[in-house]
Structure formats: structure tokens, C-alpha cells
Amino acid sequence: MPSVSRCLPARWLWLCAGLVSLSAGVVGLFVPLLPTTVFILMAAACFARSSPRLHGWLLRHPRLGPAIVHWQRHRAIAPRAKRLALVSMAASFSLSLALLPSVAWVYVIVVTIWALLSLWMWRLPEMPEPVGIKVEPASSSGV
């Protein structure tokens, strides 16, 4: 896990980035084409660099924490999460193609990004659904 930044302005930037990522992840819980997992993982990484208290809170969260801990420990994703991510990415990139101007180079860029992200996601190791993962309490210092 990365260490907390000693530079106060950097900590505040990491904290703001974490709050924005967490907000986008929470919105993604309710908006079908907005990914949740990637934003929650980004929030965890940002909080690890800015606020041990918020990082610990996120890791202990009953709905969000297990997937984060699972990723941090094993660099693997649950099969259901992988399927959902791949379907969501396909749907969102398809919608993007439908809404973008009919220009060949734009389509090539969008399809290339989708293919590379999908290949990366598909190749991630799979582990069973995270259940009952224990998380150590966060230290009392932090933002």
C-alpha cells in the first residue's frame, strides 16, 4: 500500500481526487453505463495517499470494502464483477459509437480503446466472490 504523502498540498489533491472518484463510483451504482468498480478502486488509491482514516473507512465499508481488499491482496476480480464490467464497457462504448460523429478515425480510436480495455479486463485473474474479508483498523492519524 502506498504511503501517505508528506506534502500537505499533495495530500489535499489526493483527497479531492479520492472524493471525486468515490462520488463517481456511488453515482455508478445507480447509472447503468457508468462504471463503479474502477472509481472505487481509484478512490481507495487516492485515500491511501491522503487519509488513512478515509482509506480505512472505505476498506471496512460493507458493500464496497470487500472488492477493494480483494483487489489489493490478489490483483484479481470476481467472475461476476468481470462479466458486469465487460458488458457495461461494451454497452457504453456502443452508445459512444452511436452518438459520436460518423468519422472513421474516431471510430477506430474508440474501438481500439474498448478492445484494449476489454482485453486487459478479460485477462485479469479471477477469484471467488469476496466474502468475509477481514480488514485491519485504520490508524487514528490522518485527514
Please give a structural write-up:
- This protein has one domain.
- 66% of the residues lie in helices and 0% in strands.
- Helix 3 packs across helix 4 (65-74).
- It has helices at 8-28, 37-50, 52-60, 65-74, 79-99, 104-123.
- It is an all-alpha fold.
Secondary structure layout:
Elements: H1 8-28, H2 37-50, H3 52-60, H4 65-74, H5 79-99, H6 104-123
Helix pairs in contact: 1-2, 2-3, 3-4, 5-6
Organism: Gulbenkiania mobilis
Transmembrane segments: 12-31, 104-122
Protein name: DUF454 domain-containing protein
Count every beta strand, where a strand is a DSSP E run of 2 or more residues.
Answer: 0
Strand residues, percent: under 5%
Helical content stands at: 55-70%
Task: Name the average pLDDT.
Answer: 82
Shape: globular
Secondary-structure element order, as H and E?
HHHHHH
Structural class: mainly alpha
Please give the largest β-sheet.
none
**Structural domain count:** 1
Low-confidence stretches: none
Number of helices: 6
Query: End-to-end span in angstroms?
Result: 17 Å
InterPro entries: DUF454
Transmembrane segments: 12-31, 104-122
Protein name: DUF454 domain-containing protein
Keywords: Membrane, Transmembrane, Transmembrane helix
